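Record copied across here:
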Amino acid sequence: MLEKYLNKFKQNKEVYLRIKARPGAAKSEVKEILEDETIKVAIAAVPEKGKANQELIKFLAKTFATDKNNVKILSGKSDKIKLIKIIS
């Protein structure tokens, strides 16, 4: 589902993602890509003390095969909609 973004990441060594996080899921996974290219992601963590953000960073780092330190939440740390930058 994320092939377009994975290819962009491989070509440019960075990618920006608009994520709609849904914490409290049984497992972390991409649910769908909305018309405006926002990516809905279920997060297997509760939204307390940054746990959901940390799980999102871990999930995206694994998905894009990069280090967790290369995944940054640029905006929306306390919101459901987040702007993420991933570099290699």
